[in-house]
Amino acid sequence: MALTRKRIGLYLMTTAVLTREWYINVLARIRINAFRIELVASSYEDLLSSAVVSVSCDAAVGNAVYMLPSFYNHDCDPNTHIVWLASADARLKALRNIEEGEELRICYIDASMDVDARQRILADGFGFECRCQRCLSGD
Ligand SMILES: C[S@@+](CC[C@H](N)C(=O)[O-])C[C@H]1O[C@@H](n2cnc3c(N)ncnc32)[C@H](O)[C@@H]1O
């Protein structure tokens, strides 16, 4: 394959862009914005067997980064929840009545933990100090 001026230019451009820092930055963005996909069971029996699988091994179908859901902020008392029905298509489900203009928020972690554990996991795993109403109230 001949090394044309164009090819050399492209090579220099990509090696300048694809640095170790660039790669780490991309991985960090994926890590913070990706959703773990776990398919919702369609029956009670499916729910039980999927729970068994979840406990005994890693049951995630995969991870995905979505355009819109990646903008949802976290709340330890969320008003919505993301579900996957039969595919990797994400659906947003309301957990209670939502007022017009109210921000849609999801929970990134297990909300049943106490405030200190939640803050630690959000800081270590997601890199931010949670300032949701529940955390601010110390609950
Ligand atoms: C997946 S992004 C959510 C969208 C982000 N706010 C934006 O404008 O692109 C996650 C980031 O949003 C911020 N964030 C989300 N929920 C938060 C919360 N409850 N308290 C403080 N910062 C939060 C943090 O900086 C976190 O790393």
Automatic annotation (TrEMBL):
The entry's cellular-component GO terms read: nucleus
Domain of life per record: Eukaryota
Q: Which residues form the SET domain?
A: 8-109
Instruction: Write the signal peptide boundaries.
Output: none
Q: Pfam families from the entry?
A: SET
Q: What is this protein called?
A: SET domain-containing protein
